[in-house]
Amino acid sequence: MANKISPFWPKKLAITDLARTSLIRFITIVGVEDTRLAFQRHFERELPIYGKLCVISLVEQSGKEKIIGDAFTEQVVNLNDARLTYVTFDFHEHW
C-alpha cells in the first residue's frame, strides 16, 4: 500500500527560506495538536485493516526538506505505536 500523509501544510509549498518561515507559521496557526490528531486518526483507520505497518519516509533528511522530515518523524515518535516500523531513506545519501 502506498499512501501520502503529512502534517497540515499547503501541498504546493516550495521549501525556500521564505517558505520555511511560512511553514513554521502555518503549523503554529493550525496547531500541533490538530496535526497530531489527524495523524493518529489516519493510523487508527489503517492499523486494524493491515495490522503491522512499515512507514517509509522518502523526504530529504537534510537540506530543503529537513523541516518536513522532522515534522513527520515527530508525529511517528509521538504516536508511539509498536505496530509501526518507521524507516527513513534519503536518496541523496545513496546517489
What would a concise description of this structure say?
The protein is mainly α.
Q: Any chance you could write out the topology, listing elements then pairs?
A:
Elements lengths: L16 H14 L1 H19 L2 E5 L8 H14 L4 E5 L7
Parallel strand pairs: 1-2
Helix pairs in contact: 2-3
Mean pLDDT rating: 75
Distance between the termini: 25 Å
Low-confidence stretches: 9-13
**Strand residue content:** 5-15%
The coarse overall form would be: flat
Could you tell me the radius of gyration in angstroms? 14 Å
SSE pattern: HHEHE
Q: Please work out how many helical segments DSSP would assign.
A: 3
Tell me the strand order in the biggest sheet. 1-2
How would you describe the oligomerization state of the chains in this entry? single chain
Number of strands: 2
Give the class from helix and strand content and strand pairing.
mainly alpha
Number of domains: 1
Most strands sheet: 2 strands, parallel
Helix content: 40-55%
